[in-house]
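Researcher: Here's the sequence for the chain we discussed earlier.
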Amino acid sequence: MPMGVSEAIKKREAVRAYLDKQVSADDVAKVVEAGRWGPNAGPFQISVIRNPKLLEKINDLTHQAMVASEVEFLRERVALPGYEPLYGAPVLIVMSAPGDAPYSAFNAAVAAENMLLQATELGLGSCFLVSPRMVLAGDENRSLAEEAGIPEDYVFQCAVIIGHAAAENKFQVRAREEKGTVRYVG
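Model: Thanks. This is the structure I predict for it:
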């Protein structure tokens, strides 16, 4: 019996360590299809990257950008022994949208959440990422963005990695917990 959405929401976690094992094309297609059904208010692009050399290039350049970052959290993360920004995941799904579209970030985020939940239902590990923005956004990164399937005039919004989770999630930031506050009005 398939996992219910409430169960997937509670079971989903940010997996930050993956086995060296490919994800089936069928499972990748299911994850991507889930992203296409997210509520949206404008166009967006889903680029699926499975090429190991391109994944390595994006990972390594993101690693270098994190080392040079002015953001202390990023420098602390990248200083951890063995840290890799893509965590060894065999699939990177990049969300991009027109740079002038007002709701691009929202469109990409809700599509990404659908993909994370679908991956969870399929028994795959997944993680929401924004760090590849450091090497996939901006005019200076246009060549790599094109290589990553981001159309001209589109801008990186977020990414999702998927794969088979390793036994130890060694770069886990913290245990999951409910977040935010709730106020019922009326």
